[in-house]
Design brief:
Elements (H helix, E strand, L loop, with lengths): L4 E4 L2 E5 L7 E5 L6 E4 L2 E4 L2 E5 L12 E6 L2 E3 L20 E5 L2 E7 L2 E5 L10 E5 L13 E7 L2 E5 L1 E5 L13 E6 L2 E5 L1 H4 L13 E3 L3 E6 L2 E4 L4 E3 L7 E3 L2 E3 L10 E2 L8 H7 L10 E2 L2 E3 L61 H8 L22 E6 L2 E5 L8 E7 L4 E7 L3 E5 L6 E8 L7 E5 L1
């Protein structure tokens, strides 16, 4: 509820409640600009949300929002039925939501763990973009000019919920100009994290889409159990290019680019819900749809070029089976049929060099502050990137050393342990595979997770 504000290099955790929303960061009555950069963000409701209530300034729309380099996380200790469940059923919603907000850059973040929690919570989507005019009390609400790029989004019941108008206030503004570029969607898994309704729109669906305008989906790798789309209203100027995605039949018999009312994905739902998308427009072009059939998309086969390998083994991944251990294994090998086959001459799917650069600490200030442990003393440690995969770990002068540390991969695997022998220690991690890791010091006086990226 402010202007010209930033949340940077912070650790915000353990926000939860029963029966109503909780957020790590929420804004309803501020115009921006906002910067949310290089934080750990943990909340049961929405980890970040803009909107959700009628603002005091009815003409206000949050704008010029930059959200980069953050780690969005919900721990499994909050998930009913998980082996580590801690026993309190917090209300679970999503990881990032806009009910109002324009000119938003959402880049270089990791979003992890979102599961269905009906009837009080939501259906397990990672991202929700949905104009909400609050019953007409906030008719000026807008969602538009959104770029979601270079993110890793994983372990969720669904990918994105994207509506056009407020279904409770049809004369609301329309969601417009949303681009998804170079994102890795991994383990979007209905059976593991969904709402249990295999015949519904949320069961492992990558994008549930209403009547939004100018939605572009380009150069993403999308590994989900449900359909690529569940489109329920006509959407104009839709573009789907250079994507590498699962298109297997779901448990509810939905597949690929799908919309309800049709027996299969492809020609018929696309012709109905994307009527201005034609073969000649090349707006459905250069995609790899694993497990689908070219005959389903025969209306887009004369000028447009799309590819339909039967199985993941036909694609030419670096090492698909070991993708959960290291996301770089989802890249295409140089021997893949689809290597350098995209419209821009690069690989179809994610450009992993661009993804790594966006996730790199060199992109941001890497000095991360710890938590205030009590009212009188700040106890912290910090990490400084020195280049060439050298990291300087700095402990307070009064620290009791040596101190042990652990490093986890983004998939939660323990990859390295060690000991810090002095208050200022330089550690070199070039022997580790390139990627994003989380650094944890095993000391009850120091808490928090620090993100490092090995080049």
């Amino acid at each position: 509820n402010c202007a010209n504000a930033a949340v940077i290099d912070s650790y915000i955790s353990d926000f939860h409640s029963v029966g109503y929303d909780t957020q790590a960061i929420n804004g309803t009555n501020g115009p921006g600009p906002f910067k949310i950069i290089n934080n750990y963000l943990e909340a049961a409701g929405e980890n970040i949300m803009f909107g959700g209530a009628t603002p005091g300034i009815l003409t206000n729309v949050p704008a010029d929002i930059v959200i980069r380099g953050n780690y969005f996380f919900k721990p499994y200790t909050w998930k009913v039925g998980h082996a580590t469940y801690a026993g309190t059923h917090w209300t679970i919603k999503n990881l990032f939501e806009l009910k109002t907000g324009i000119r938003v850059l959402f880049d270089g973040n990791i979003l992890e763990n979102s599961w269905a929690d009906l009837p009080i919570g939501q259906s397990g989507a990672a991202i929700v973009l949905t104009v909400r005019a609050e019953g007409g009390a906030y008719a000026n609400a807008k969602v538009g000019d959104i770029t979601i790029s270079n993110n890793i989004i994983r372990h969720c019941g669904a990918g994105v919920g994207l509506s056009g108008h407020d279904d409770g206030y049809p004369s609301s503004n329309q969601t417009q100009r949303v681009k998804f570029y170079n994102n890795l969607f991994e383990d979007i898994n209905g059976p593991a994290f969904g709402d249990g309704n295999i015949y519904g729109p949320n069961d492992g669906t990558l994008i549930k889409l209403g009547d939004a305008s100018d939605v572009q989906i380009d150069h993403n790798t999308m590994l989900q159990t449900g359909p690529i789309t569940w489109v329920y209203e006509i959407s104009d100027n839709f573009k789907f290019t250079n994507n590498l995605c699962h298109a297997f039949m779901s448990a509810g018999n939905y597949q690929g680019l799908y919309g309800p009312g049709y027996a299969q994905g492809g020609n018929f739902p696309m012709g109905n819900f994307f009527p201005d998308l034609t073969d000649a427009s090349l707006r459905f072009h250069k995609n790899v749809l694993i497990g689908s059939s070219s005959s389903n998309y025969s209306n887009y086969a004369s000028n447009s070029q799309n590819y339909f390998p039967v199985a993941v083994t036909d694609v030419g991944f670096v090492d698909y089976n070991n993708g959960p251990a290291d996301y770089h294994n989802y890249a295409l090998s140089a021997l893949s049929t689809y290597h350098n086959y995209a419209t821009d001459g690069t690989d179809i799917g994610v450009d992993f060099n661009k993804l790594d650069l966006a996730l790199s600490p060199a992109t941001y200030d890497c000095t991360l502050v710890g938590l205030v442990q009590n009212n009188s003393e700040q106890k912290h440690f910090s990490i400084h990137y020195l280049g060439d995969n050298n990291f300087n770990i700095v402990l307070p002068e009064n620290s009791i050393i040596p101190v042990s540390y652990e490093i986890f991969s983004v998939s939660g695997q323990l990859v390295k342990t060690g000991s810090i022998e002095t208050n200022s220690t330089i550690l070199q991690f070039s022997e580790m595979n390139p990627g994003v890791y989380f650094f944890n010091i095993l000391d009850k006086e120091r808490q928090g997770v620090r993100k490092i990226v090995v080049q």
